[in-house]
User: Fold FAD-binding oxidoreductase from Maribrevibacterium harenarium.
Amino acid sequence: MSDNSLGLAGSPSVVVVGGGIIGVTSAINLVKRGFQVTLIEKAEIAAGASTGNCGLMAVGEIVPISKPGVLAQVPGWLMDPSGPVRIRPWHAMTMSTWFFKFLKAGSKENVQRIAQGLTQLSNAAAASYQPLLKEAGIEDLLQPYEVMYLFDDQSEISHGQYDWDLRSSCNFEYEFLTGDQTREAEPEISKDIACSMLMKGWDYFSDPARLTKSLANLFVSLGGNILIGEVRQFEFKDHSMDAVVLATGERIMADHFVIAAGAWAAQLSQQLGDNLPVEAMAGYNTTIADAGVKVNHPLLHHNGGFVITPMEMGLRVGGTLELGGLDSEPDFNRARTIVSKAKKILPNLSGHNKTEWVGYRPMMPDTLPVIDYSHRVRNVVYACGHGQLGITYGAITGELVADLVQGANSKLDLSYYRSDRF
Ligand SMILES: Cc1cc2nc3c(=O)[nH]c(=O)nc-3n(C[C@H](O)[C@H](O)[C@H](O)COP(=O)(O)OP(=O)(O)OC[C@H]3O[C@@H](n4cnc5c(N)ncnc54)[C@H](O)[C@@H]3O)c2cc1C
Assistant:
């Protein structure tokens, strides 16, 4: 076993665990504030959810997944393996505690507060990215096209009025387009689509993997260090963490630690006694290099729960929510189902030269992330649980993490994101 003491003689040192968008933005902000930072990633940078997601800067998506009326939808989630949300029945039995917290979070009063917590992050999201994109030389990644929510039938809008009112009450705007106006903006869209909503201020990244990897390169150019290795254990001294221990046995010591391990954060937090209820919520996509159609806006199909995003490497059809844990075999039929639904929206879509992918959103029961100290171990900060919004909230989370490690006042009210709220 070798000892690797980082920065003990110079400026304070930080180990960040997890090389997804959240770990990388945290690492950049920390190195910029003068810390000696080592980012530890078990596979490669952007190995997890941060690579194959839909890339949306969903800055007005402040409606949590659990909301009033959600219980009535649960039987469908259990019974229909091809629906937009699925719970694998055997997994349902192991996640009753999480599910109880999820249902409780969906009361009217709780949803109001959750929406405020998401709104704060949303309002800061775009401005936090701008300097990072500029410094990394990747401003071209952010595409200026707003997301279009597509409806098969106009009545879906009034059925979802609660969501639209909640967005309006938080000052997020959207514009109704008739079917003809929708096709004027995107001529490839079929007549099956009755109308759409243009989500004001939402835009998208045309390659989320390039985003995370380029930011990781920026981190290294600023003096940060990336280490490939799996963190297996922690060592403690006087109520503080002293070192992380890798699968190889190597010990990495530091003054501060940040856990940004996405859907794997639950396991690591158990070792610290914090037991964060982060569930792995799988999502699938198919990226089609020769799609045979050109669209500019990302298209979000309301009923299907999936997104069609024009990425640099092809058209990505991705989304759906599946609760089945981290160890279950992926069910790529879900990816194929949404491609066949996408063909109804874009009749000229062909399926040539395609790649399928599964990734795991780190999901808290209330949709809010955890950005807070450990309440058990003094020098540990958590940055995880960003669910379906981790790309959107990546840059602002990095700033907040650096505030916490530094002990500086934060520009946002962090009480929404406490690690001990469940
Ligand atoms: C299909 C799909 C579509 C999505 N679309 C969008 C979207 O349009 N907009 C949006 O904002 N968000 C979207 N998301 C959500 C977004 O992708 C995630 O919220 C975000 O990527 C989470 O980032 P993260 O850094 O927390 O986790 P991850 O990207 O999963 O990174 C965690 C990293 O930690 C590493 N790790 C884990 N354990 C250890 C360990 N013990 N030691 C060392 N390393 C470890 C993993 O290998 C991984 O690389 C989508 C997600 C999915 C699945």
User: Anything to note?
Assistant: The two ends are 37 Å apart (CA to CA).
